[in-house]
Amino acid sequence: MMEIRKLPVGEYQTNCYLIVATVRNEAVLVDPGHQAMEILHWAGSIKVLCILITHGHPDHVGALEDVRHKLNAPVYIHPADAELFALEADFAIQDGDQINLGDDRIEFVHIPGHTPGSVGFKLIESGVIKHAIVGDAIFPGGLGHTESSEALALSIASLSESVFSWPDSVILYPGHGDPTTVGLERKAFEAFQSKPIPPDLYGDVTWS
């Protein structure tokens, strides 16, 4: 069984996550944004197998180099964001790839829009998707910030193909703030998607 632990760090209270296989005392670390020493203290004696990055914005990777050095853990980043933000990855995240954590799996999902290489991580336990860490791709009540109308259109399309293809029961853990579920967001997203979208709309967009 996987357990999700959250530590908000830095000025923007970016959610750093530990996905823990409690029986083995092993974990995957997601988005070490700031406060490296606090993150390391929080992880404690847990063996961190690797570090996953949802996207390359500084508030999500500010402590990456210090943390990766101390933990000696390989880093996974989507190549689009590794190139855009000049980040060093040990492994390139590709859509659909998986890693094992204990007896369960974590699947990588490309959700471009917020950044070209934004990704989410589906947690699959006994073959069932129960949780997903989604970075800044989606939040309660809206989608992540976009820098252009083209990026907004891409974000809507990629969310439709990924997050909103999942069961309503899946709990979504965003890059900032509190979790939501696919079911809580679906009706508003579908209503938003069905309406004409102004050609100059982008930025911080909510469903309403």
Can you give keywords for this protein?
globular, alpha/beta, 208 residues, six-stranded mixed sheet, Metallo-beta-lactamase, Chain A, 14 strands, single chain
What does this structure look like?
This protein is of the alpha/beta class and 208 residues long. It has one domain: Metallo-beta-lactamase, Chain A. 25% of the residues lie in helices and 33% in strands. The chain contains six helices and 14 strands. It has helices spanning 36-43, 58-61, 64-71, 79-84, 149-161, 182-194, and strands at 2-9, 14-21, 26-30, 47-52, 75-77, 91-92, 98-101, 104-110, 119-125, 128-135, 138-139, 142-143, 171-174, 180-181. A six-stranded mixed sheet has the order 1-2-3-4-5-6. Strands 7-8-9-10-13-14 form a six-stranded mixed sheet. Strand 3 (26-30), helix 1 (36-43) and strand 4 form a beta-alpha-beta unit. Helix 1 runs parallel beside helix 3 (64-71). The radius of gyration is 16 Å and the shape is globular. The model has no long low-confidence stretch (mean pLDDT 97).
Short description, anyone?
This protein has helices at 36-43, 58-61, 64-71, 79-84, 149-161, 182-194, and strands spanning 2-9, 14-21, 26-30, 47-52, 75-77, 91-92, 98-101, 104-110, 119-125, 128-135, 138-139, 142-143, 171-174, 180-181.
